[in-house]
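To fix ideas, we close by showing one paired sequence and structure record:
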Amino acid sequence: MEEDAWGNAVTAASAEAARALDETALAYMGFRLDTGAHLKAALTADPEMPLALIYRGYFFLLFCHPALARKAAETRERLLPMAEGGALNARERLHFRALDLWVDGDMQGANDAWEAVMLDWPFDPMAIRLAHYTSFYMRGGTAMRRQSARVIRDWAGRDLPGAGFIHGVHAFSCEESGDYANAERHGRMAVEMNPADIWATHAVAHAMEMQGRHREGIGWIRANEADWNRTNNFRFHVWWHRCLYHLELGEHDEVLALYDRAVRAESTDEYLDITNGVAMLWRLEQEGVNVGGRWDELADRSAERVHDHILCFADMHYVMALAAAGREAEAKDMIAAMRDASDGDFSSQGEVYRRIGLPLAEAVVAARAGRHQQVLDTLLPVREDIALVGGSHAQRDVFERTLLESALAAGKGALARALAAERVDAKATSAYGWRRYADALDLCGDAEGARAARAEMARLAA
């Protein structure tokens, strides 16, 4: 039995194996390219190290890819005799339980297992980070905030490896629960501790976006991006956030340039990379920007994932890409496959597909086809459930925008005015919100109100 960098007992054949696993956890928390290399080193030092094998299973599942999910299941089978034979300590048994449940699609059960780890072992960074991840795609900011609040005071002020990462986790939890001041405080603290902490940088970027601090947000990302040379594809997502700032400022050429050289510089099949591209092109077209042939590449990549049905959030964007590229038949086939896959599926995501995924997918296809009344009829009754699809407030905003655009296109002035009024109340510095509010007031015959709204839009854009 060895001890990890945070004082937790680890079943390992050597101190070398335990140290390699520590580095694996730190690399994962930092979104580093060498995460796999450290895990390989741990398993080379001890091929039967239970927690290293569990981590491998976790990493397979994080890709949200069916082939890798099967590898996670194989890893579980390899671990099962160890778990049943008493080779795991109490903390490791809870981690195995999390993997076991997650392989079966029970993200909530896995989340509960990590919460149990955090109660008795608050200095377990992997449990903290994975609970954070799964809550993000299930229960949202309130659950995330509750989880990170339980441990942040344990870590604060302690000279522990990766302590800054826990502040970054808490920063994003605060942002998603609406506490932007604490989000920025903890995020900046984390970046001061480790300038390469891209998750903390991202948390502050979120807070600035939600507060309409667009130019400040651009400066924040520019100031930190030089430290991301060792990070993985997540840097593409942070550049996506920079695109959001430029979009609000009406700097469409800069958005497209950033898209081409940063957000989608590589044609990857990683789900977050695809969702970045889809969500940005969708927003650009809503503002009348010609995006050229950029949809084709995203649609081709999405067509490769039409039978995944692992994460509803990702599937929504695959449907959007197919519909936007004019491949409505394929988008409808994917929706049919989603319906078949979710029928009788009682996993955590199965319920999400049935409750919001299917109507949301049908609505985005209808929006692209110009069937705007269908969008309203489909989305309005389930609007409050959109959060269940997962993702951040900023990411899900593409669906709120689609509802507003359809209300305007359908000529529903009163509804459009109500939706736009909600928007400018929540984001008073959004030029897009004021523009659409003016359009809605025009539909309602309120020319004076529309002029005032456009004056505010012009003031913000100046």
